[in-house]
Amino acid sequence: MKASAFSYIRPTTIDDALALLAQYGEQAKVLSGGQSLMPALNLRLSAPEWLVDIGGLSDLRTIAVSRGLLRIGALARHVDVLKSADVAEHAPLLADAMVHVAHPAIRNKGTMGGNLAHADPASEMPACMIALDAVIVVRSRAGERRLQARDFFIGIYETALAAEELLVAVEIPVANQNSVRFFHEYARRNGDYAIVGLAASATLDGGSFADLRLGFFAVGDRPLLATAARHLIGRPVTAAMLAEAQAALEAELDPQEDQQAPVAMRKHLARQLLALCVATLLGRADLEARRSA
Amino acid sequence: MTAPVAVSLTVNGERIDAQVLPRLNLADFLREHLGLTGTHVGCEHGVCGACTVRVDGDIVRACLLLAVQTHNASVETIEGLSDSGEVADLQAAFCNRNALQCGYCTPGMLMAAQDLLRQNAAPDRAQIREHLSGNYCRCTGYHAIIDAVEATALARRGEQP
């Protein structure tokens, strides 16, 4: 199908963009890379009166590191993140995850800000952001707000972003030498939406987890920072602890049934992913045997 | 409100000035305004890859890009790549290997395959599959397409298949 008619405006400064969003409010949609918005327009799931194309705001394209934070501008494309030396060094989880985001032709246009603002619960990047304890920086004419990633995602395609606000960047604490990460998703085909996925970031202390942040996706209406991780922190992980964590995880999941998978299958796969993650990060093949438990 | 917008761009090296409605996507602009019907339109929501073109050197989905977004951009379509001879060997390999039947996906396949070969002169079969995973073919079952891309890569490196 074809998009219904809309008016188009391409501001050249962030201030102009914010003024337009303040003026048009809910009547406007922000066009970034368009890789989620354009399908929605073409399928007529969305029919805004105005498109505010922020593609010309080159200030928002930067990826840079300073004072212990990796800052990724909203307009950094997926391919830029995938190829960034700073990302590879300071937030390698993002590069691991990015190869699972759609396909090369989509990654050449899709942007970090667009992906996060779209807030698809099956999307990889939101889960990475909660796993990495990122801060999402949003701006309006009234000023800037900084939101914890786990507070930013509030429902299916729903975020804490107000109509007059623009997501301008995401800030991620840089990985330290004890940081390890895990990314895996189950998908039917390369580039498909995940059936269930897990982006995890951990700090190791000897053979134990000093910290473990588990960002599950496609398991509910938003990415989930699993509190089940508390069962695995601070002491050597045993099979019994892992089983306890798996049970706790299952209790906090609220997956949807769709054409890809029923609820029970998603819960089963999430338990499997947890075991695979713990076994992989700790180098403990014995724990992976718990996968099918 | 929804008045036409002036755009200037180059398409296959030729300067184009046009007035386009904001809602017009690049694929329809190429096909209906410029008569470049080699860019095919399949799903119109970014899934099938039939409309793959190059914009400023990168492959993109022409159905997920508005014509107005290509202002000042350089667009290359399958007509440009085949007229210049850039993909002549790839096209020949597709014919030799029966890597097409109805041909609907072929322009997009060629764009994506050439994009891979420009970035990686020696891709293995898994890398070829990954790079073409966003391009659907309903005829061939893909094996012949992978064969054709692999054979072209080998030939460009001066190696025997």
Question: Please, could you describe this protein's structure?
Answer:
The complex is a heterodimer of chains A (293) and B (161). Chain A is globular. Chain A has three domains: 7-53, Uridine Diphospho-n-acetylenolpyruvylglucosamine Reductase, domain 2 (2-Layer Sandwich), CATH 3.30.43; 62-172, Uridine Diphospho-n-acetylenolpyruvylglucosamine Reductase, domain 3 (2-Layer Sandwich), CATH 3.30.465; 181-292, 2-Layer Sandwich (Enolase-like, domain 1), CATH 3.30.390.50. The model of chain A has no long low-confidence stretch (mean pLDDT 96). A five-stranded antiparallel beta sheet of chain A has the order 4-5-10-6-7. A four-stranded antiparallel beta sheet of chain A has the order 11-12-13-14. A three-stranded parallel beta sheet of chain A has the order 1-3-2, covered by helices on one side. Chain A has helices at 14-24, 37-42, 78-83, 85-90, 92-98, 104-107, 112-118, 124-131, 149-152, 239-252, 263-282, 285-288; strands spanning 7-9, 28-31, 50-53, 63-66, 69-73, 135-140, 143-148, 153-155, 158-159, 166-173, 179-186, 196-205, 208-217, 224-225. By secondary structure, chain A is an alpha+beta fold. With 161 residues, chain B is an alpha+beta fold. Chain B has two domains: 5-81, Ubiquitin-like (UB roll); 87-156, DNA polymerase, domain 1 (Orthogonal Bundle). Chain B is 36% helix and 16% strand. Chain B contains six helices and five strands, in the order ββαβββααααα. Chain B has helices at 26-33, 78-83, 88-96, 106-119, 125-131, 143-156; strands at residues 5-11, 14-20, 52-55, 58-61, 74-76. In chain B, β1 (5-11) and β2 (14-20) form a beta hairpin. Chain B is elongated and about 55 Å long. The model of chain B has no long low-confidence stretch (mean pLDDT 97). Classes of the chains: A alpha+beta (293), B alpha+beta (161). At the A-B interface, α2 and α6 of A face β4, α4 and α5 of B.
